[in-house]
Design a protein that fits this description.
Layout lengths: L10 H28 L24 E3 L6 E6 L15 E4 L7 H4 L5 E3 L5 H14 L5 H4 L8 E6 L3 H12 L8 E6 L4 H8 L5 E6 L25 H7 L16 H19 L11 E5 L2 E3 L3 H15 L5 E3 L13 H7 L5 E6 L9 E3 L1 H9 L1 H6 L5 H11 L6 E5 L4 E3 L14 H14 L11 E4 L16 H10 L4
Parallel strand pairs: 5-6, 5-8, 6-7, 10-13, 11-15
Antiparallel strand pairs: 1-2, 2-3, 3-4, 8-12, 9-14, 10-12, 11-13
Helix pairs in contact: 8-15
Length: 490
């Protein structure tokens, strides 16, 4: 018969008693805290639950959540329900905890993931191809199928989780957000982003994956092939070195950089896929609104889109692009004064005229006839030596089409670009919440002007037809050919 070992006598027994009491007490506290955390079905005041403690259930299709108090939440992928599951069942993922009281504004840097590589690029490409073919609509049972005139919001996502969470926070609080179909177009695959997307509960969601991303092709085109010329090489040196694209520098003598070309490829592919490949949208005649992960939409953006559509139909403005607002004005002022300078307090006034990429390049919507006209200019889009998709659209507007694109937009912007750092800009403080605070204060101060009942007035904008000077970065014929393949133009 086995007996308990003797722990010692006197002071030794007292020490062990204290240790045992502490262990039991800590376990009880951990259990109570875990129950309290798991009882919460939502995080903060929003209707969307970000990564962290407050899972309302298993992550749909991918992960089952376990929990510990403090430290980290350990999650292990469960068996795949569909062939297209992107996260490999062989991977173990660690998701940093988010406090149960967190809102979107407090998540920011706390939600991070580390994961061991578990799939080959071949396997990942296969999974992505299957996902794009299956086109599973999340939450369709709850909200019903997309109607022919419902607004489709298409958000282009890279790997900025903080920005994506803030974007979703704003979208979830918009009036009638439950009526939209949200298409999340990703060029980066991770359990972290996948968990965020699959915890969206306020609307229908279609995740799609850019198949020609750098992540999936890191050592070959469209990534960086080791046989490629270095971007800063002189042409003479490139020819001597024998690098494979020595004959194809851009207008300014630079060779291709994969990271620079990626965004334009993704933007063109995304448009083609949403308009021409998504089966549930085959008969869709309404708006596709194109935004990015660092854009914030005002609570009345759906209402404003409908209002602009009615104005265009009623008065025959011939609008192509329906923009939710200008980029911020360079007034030299700070804070809300920037937006006041734009809107002059007139939330029910709008402007229209020639579309200009540097002014109306965020949060703009268009319908199928405009996409058809864009496809007719595929060659102009794909062959222009410019890595910017928006500047390339401006080129199409003034040099390919018979007449320039016409835009309508509210004077008081219903979209805000809060991403402070990216391809073009780097700042000391890149916290997106700091920048977003400027716009949310503007909306709060002027909330009485939201949801205008009608268009009070229209003003024209200069009808410029100035040709663009390309910025380069797009001189490699491989980029041209790949771009052309997305819109099925030879």
């Amino acid at each position: 018969m086995r007996t308990m070992p003797v722990l010692g006598t006197g002071s030794q027994r007292s020490i062990w008693r204290i240790v045992l009491v502490c262990i039991v007490a800590s376990q009880l506290l951990a259990f109570v805290a875990m129950v309290a955390m798991s009882s919460r079905s939502e995080v903060g005041s929003g209707r969307y639950s970000p990564v962290g403690y407050a899972f309302s259930g298993p992550l749909v299709g991918y992960l089952d959540a376990g929990a510990t108090v403090g430290g980290q939440v350990q999650t292990v992928p469960r068996n795949a329900d569909r062939k297209s599951d992107i996260v490999s069942t062989a991977a173990t993922t660690t998701i940093a905890t988010v406090p149960a009281t967190a809102t979107f504004a407090t998540v920011r840097a706390t939600a991070t993931v580390t994961t061991a590589p578990a799939t080959t690029n071949v396997d990942a490409n296969r999974r992505i191809a299957l996902a794009n073919e299956e086109q599973v609509i999340l939450n369709e049972k709850e909200f019903g199928p997309a109607g022919p005139n419902d607004i489709v919001v298409v958000v282009q996502v890279h790997q900025r989780l903080r920005e994506l969470v803030l974007f979703l926070d704003g979208l979830s609080k918009a009036r009638d957000s439950q009526t939209i179909l949200l298409v999340v177009s990703m060029d980066y695959v991770s359990p972290e982003l996948d968990a965020v997307v699959r915890n969206i509960t306020f609307c229908k969601v279609l995740p799609i994956y850019f198949p020609m991303s750098i992540q999936l092709h890191p050592n070959e085109f469209p990534g960086t092939d080791p046989r490629d010329c270095k971007p800063s090489m002189k042409r003479r040196d490139a020819q001597k070195s024998g690098c494979q694209n020595a004959a194809h520098p851009d207008t300014y003598g630079h060779y291709r950089e994969a990271a620079i070309t990626a965004t334009k490829h993704h933007w063109w592919w995304k448009c083609a896929f949403v308009f021409d490949k998504v089966r549930v949208l085959a008969g869709h005649t309404g708006f596709k609104l194109f935004v990015e992960e660092d854009h914030f939409l005002a609570p009345d953006f759906i209402h404003v889109l409908r209002l602009m559509d009615q104005e265009n139909t009623k008065n025959g403005h011939g609008v192509d692009f329906f923009s939710l607002g200008r980029q911020r004005a360079k007034t030299g002022r700070k804070g809300q004064e920037r937006f006041v300078a734009i809107s002059n307090g007139a939330f029910d006034w709008f402007e229209y005229g020639n579309w200009k990429s540097t002014v109306y390049n965020m949060g703009f919507a268009f319908k199928r006839p405009v996409w058809d006209s864009l496809k007719e200019c595929s060659e102009a889009f794909c062959k222009l030596d410019d890595y910017n998709w928006d500047w390339t659209l401006h080129h199409i507007s003034v040099q390919c089409r018979k007449k320039p694109f016409i835009v309508i937009a509210p004077l008081a912007p219903r979209v805000y670009h809060f991403g402070m750092c990216g391809v073009h800009f780097q700042m000391k403080n890149c916290d997106p919440a700091v920048a977003l605070d400027e716009y949310t204060r503007f909306l709060d101060t002027n909330k009485a002007g939201l949801f205008p009942p009608a268009v009070a007035g229209m003003r024209g904008v200069p009808r410029t037809t100035k040709k663009v000077q390309p910025f380069g970065g797009w001189g490699d014929p491989r980029d041209v050919n790949l771009c052309m393949s997305f819109s099925n133009k030879s």
